[in-house]
Design goal:
about 300 residues, hpI Integrase, Chain A, globular
Length: about 300
C-alpha cells in the first residue's frame, strides 16, 4: 500500500497555487484560496471531513463579497469546484488516499438560470470603437468564436491554421481541446497583428512607446485584460457586462442566425447539450417558421394518408 505523505492544507494550497500558476490559471482561481486557507489553517488534509467542507460552503454563502454584495450560489460553487480540484490533486500527488476526498460528495448549491446578457449590435459596435488597440483584436476573437477569455489569452501562433481558417484551442477550460472555425473577419484581424520574434503567444504586453503607456508585461502574454475592458465598457456606456458575456453574445447571435444548437455547443466546447439550451429562448421565430411548414390539415395536402392495416 502506498504510504501517504502528511501535509497541511496550507502546504497543499501553496503547491496547488504553484501548479495553477504554471498552467496560467492563477489570475482566475487564486482569489478563492485565501478564505479556505484561513478556515483550514494548520489542519492536516487527512483530518478534514465532508461535514467541514459543507459547513465551509454554507459559511462562504453568508459572507458578503468585497463590494459588500450578497455572494451568489454560482460564486460559492466556483469556490467549491476549486477545492474539489485541490483535493483531487492531493490524491494524484500522494498526499491523500483515493476515496478519501472530503469534497467528493458535497453538492453544488442550486443556481438560477437567470437571463443571458448579450450585446446588441449597436453596443458591440460602440465597444469595439471604444477599445484600446491591444484590446480590440481580443474582443473580436471573443465575439467571432465565443471562446473563453483564458482560452483567447493562451492562443499561440501555432494554434492558427490560416489556410483552412481553423483555430485550435489546446488549453480549454474543460480539458478537451477543440477546433474552432474562423470567420473571414477574424482571419483578417489576426493576420494584421505583429508577430514577435521571441514570443509564441499572439496577445502580448507592449512596452511604453512615446506617449503610449506600457501595456501588461512587454513580450509576455496577458494574464488578464480587466482594466482595459472595464474602461472600454465605461467609454461605450455599457453597464452590467462582463468579459464572459462576450461568449454569450457570440452564442446568442449564432442561435438567432439559425445555427443548430449542437453546432453551437461544439464551437463553444460545451460538454453537455444542457449547457447550450440556455439560448433556446432566442429561437422563437425559427420555431414559428418550422411549424408554418406543416400542411393545412383540412386540405390534407402534402400528407400521406394512413391506410387500414398499416
Amino acid at each position: 500500500m502506498k504510504k501517504i505523505k502528511p501535509i497541511t492544507f496550507d502546504e497543499m494550497a501553496v503547491k496547488f497555487s504553484e501548479w495553477l500558476a504554471s498552467n496560467r490559471k492563477s489570475a482566475e482561481y487564486l482569489y478563492t484560496l485565501p478564505p479556505a486557507k484561513e478556515c483550514f489553517k494548520g489542519r492536516l488534509l487527512t483530518g478534514i471531513t465532508e461535514h467541514e467542507i459543507e459547513t465551509y460552503r454554507a459559511m462562504r454563502r453568508d459572507v458578503p463579497t468585497a463590494a459588500g454584495k450578497v455572494r451568489s450560489n454560482s460564486t460559492v460553487n466556483h469556490e467549491l469546484a476549486i477545492l474539489k480540484q485541490l483535493f483531487g490533486k492531493a490524491i494524484a500527488w500522494g498526499y491523500l488516499e483515493k476515496g478519501k476526498n472530503p469534497t467528493e460528495n458535497v453538492k453544488k448549491l442550486p443556481e438560477s438560470k437567470g437571463r443571458v446578457r448579450f450585446l446588441s449590435l449597436e453596443e458591440a459596435k460602440a465597444l469595439l470603437a471604444a477599445a484600446s488597440p491591444h484590446l480590440r483584436p481580443i474582443l473580436i476573437t471573443a465575439l467571432e468564436t465565443g471562446m473563453r477569455r483564458s482560452e483567447i489569452l493562451r492562443l499561440t501562433w501555432d494554434n492558427l491554421d490560416m489556410k483552412n481558417g481553423i483555430l485550435y484551442v489546446s488549453e480549454a477550460k474543460n480539458g478537451d481541446p477543440r477546433h474552432v472555425p474562423m470567420s473571414s473577419r477574424l482571419r483578417a484581424t489576426l493576420a494584421a497583428l505583429p508577430r514577435s520574434l521571441h514570443g509564441r503567444y499572439i496577445f502580448l504586453g507592449m512596452p511604453k512607446v512615446k506617449k503610449m503607456r506600457q501595456i501588461g508585461t512587454p513580450g509576455k502574454p496577458f494574464q488578464d485584460v480587466d482594466t482595459s475592458f472595464e474602461n472600454a465598457c465605461t467609454k461605450a456606456g455599457i453597464t452590467g457586462f462582463r468579459f464572459h458575456d462576450l461568449r454569450h453574445t457570440a452564442a446568442s447571435y449564432m442561435v438567432m442566425a439559425g445555427v443548430p444548437m449542437k453546432t453551437v455547443g461544439e464551437i463553444l466546447g460545451h460538454k453537455t447539450a444542457t449547457m447550450t439550451e440556455r439560448y433556446s429562448h432566442l429561437t422563437p421565430e425559427h420555431k414559428r417558421q418550422a411549424v408554418e411548414l406543416l400542411s393545412d390539415w383540412e386540405k390534407n395536402d402534402g400528407h400521406k394518408s394512413v391506410t387500414k392495416g398499416a
